[in-house]
Design goal:
It is built from ten helices and 18 strands. By secondary structure, it is α+β, with helices and mostly antiparallel strands. Strands 2, 4, 5, 6, 7, 8, 9, 10, 11, 12, 15, 16 and 17 form a 13-stranded mixed sheet that branches. A three-stranded antiparallel sheet has the order 3-13-14, with helices on one face. It is globular.
């Protein structure tokens, strides 16, 4: 397909988020011209789903080839040992120099080694699922893709899966068409462990999203965001007015709010499971996984604030009951070619749970909605204050979970980016992502997406 036609088509689909009724016949034809994805067990764009479940449920690990897929002669496969400092450094350099940039090349994710250890080493992680490609002659790492195990559930049905992430190919080698081979190789390695489904996300439209969420941004340090070009002064406003608009209180207000401790795990898991049961796409955690994701380790060692990746807080009432918790993680941006600022502190809302509406039989009733909306506004307001203390300049959230209940009230502006969720080798009916047809926040229906991906 002509590159210009493909770009135009993706832009159109980005606006309409996969609504084929908006496409011409030629565009429909072009959309089917994804040569690689046509060979994979994924939903097609125009495929009618009559029943949810695996697309191909016939294979066993014995059916999967034992040898890696062929690689171009000058390159070789490399299983990356992320416990080895030098190999971890290789991944660090590759992603920080070649991973996703904004379209103007002003910002780039600035992954830290602490973030990689948190994201790539949850309980059950496997070394062979950190797949690299190196230059044979020099050993330089020029491509990477990873998988971690997750216990996924789709509308209450358990779907053992992996989460695919950190797909990156060196900028100078993107014409070599390594991405399809990377995907095939990570799939082979996962299938060898008798796991056949995967969850992954992308900003671009591929065959075929099960749901789409929109990014929302809550400025914290508006002056800095404006100075680096992350945001502009709106027409009819002054910089001083914008600073005043986004100024946060100095102190949190929720009574009983404190940092999470290891002793909280049992109560938090019980609350979390009740809260997450409302959503149609969720991830379940066992105790060791919960400890890893919400404490950033085994919970026994103290992590200095400047090395923290995940920040988790609980609300404990006077009887010692945990009624709520929220968490957010740090993933800063490198600011490219700026005279003053080299980094933006970015906070991302992670998982949360509340018992505010659990006593109601209908979560969408007026009383239940009011109770949860009031509680979430208070909790996430405090989260932004704590993010400011952690030197974050902006706080990001998706329209997933029950987020649309507080996004407007807490001054989260809708971003330009959309995140499409995909299921590999699994058909599923569409899942609401918290968006109306015009891509504005859907406060009434909210979302049915309970899973949060990094």
């Amino acid at each position: 397909m002509d590159q210009k036609k493909l770009e135009d088509l993706l832009k159109l689909l980005q606006v309409n988020q996969g609504d084929l009724s908006k496409l011409t016949e030629q565009q429909r034809k072009d959309m089917k011209d994804y040569k690689f994805w046509k060979t994979q067990p994924v939903q097609k764009f125009d495929e009618a789903i009559d029943q949810e479940g695996p697309i191909d449920a016939t294979k066993t690990p014995a059916d999967v080839r034992d040898e890696p897929y062929p690689m171009l002669a000058e390159f070789e496969w490399s299983t990356v040992d992320i416990n080895d400092a030098q190999q971890m450094e290789d991944v660090f350099i590759l992603l920080n120099e070649n991973y996703v940039e904004d379209k103007d090349a002003s910002f780039r994710f600035n992954y830290t080694k602490e973030f990689f250890h948190w994201a790539l080493k949850p309980p059950g992680w496997r070394e062979e699922w950190n797949v690299g490609v190196r230059v044979k002659s020099t050993g330089k790492l020029i491509a990477f893709i990873s998988a971690i195990p997750i216990n996924l559930a789709v509308r209450g049905k358990d779907v053992p899966s992996v989460e695919i992430n950190f797909l990156c190919v060196h900028k100078q080698l993107r014409s070599k068409r390594m991405t399809p081979v990377l995907i095939k190789e990570i799939t082979r390695r996962v299938n060898k462990q008798n796991i056949w489904q995967a969850l992954y996300t992308a900003g671009v439209v591929l065959p075929s999203p099960v749901t789409t969420c929109r990014y929302a941004h809550r400025p914290i340090n508006w002056n800095k965001l404006q100075e680096v070009g992350f945001t502009d002064v709106p027409a009819g406003k002054t910089a001083a007015e914008m600073v005043a608009l986004y100024t946060l209180p100095k102190d949190t207000k929720t009574k009983g709010l404190r940092p999470m401790e290891l002793k909280d795990i049992g109560q938090m898991m019980t609350l979390f499971e009740k809260y997450e049961s409302r959503f149609e796409l969720v991830q379940a955690f066992n105790e060791s996984e919960f400890t890893h994701w919400f404490l950033g380790g085994n919970g026994k060692e103290e992590i200095p604030d400047d090395k923290k990746v995940i920040f988790t807080y609980v609300v404990e009432n006077e009887e010692g009951k945990i009624t709520d918790f929220f968490s957010f993680y740090s993933l800063p941006f490198t600011v490219l070619e700026h005279d003053v600022h080299s980094e933006l502190g970015i906070g991302y809302l992670f998982y949360y749970a509340s018992d505010a509406d659990l006593k109601f039989s209908d979560r969408f009733s007026e009383d239940a909605t009011k109770a949860l909306k009031t509680r979430l506004n208070s909790l996430i307001s405090d989260a932004t204050i704590l993010a400011k203390r952690a030197k974050m300049d902006v706080f990001n959230a998706l329209t997933s979970q029950d987020n649309t209940l507080f996004l407007d009230d807490l001054k989260f502006g809708p971003g330009d980016g959309f995140l499409n969720f995909y299921l590999f080798n699994y058909k599923a009916f569409p899942i609401g992502g918290g968006l109306k047809d015009d891509k504005s926040y859907d406060i009434e229906k909210r979302s049915n997406v309970g899973v949060v991906m990094l």
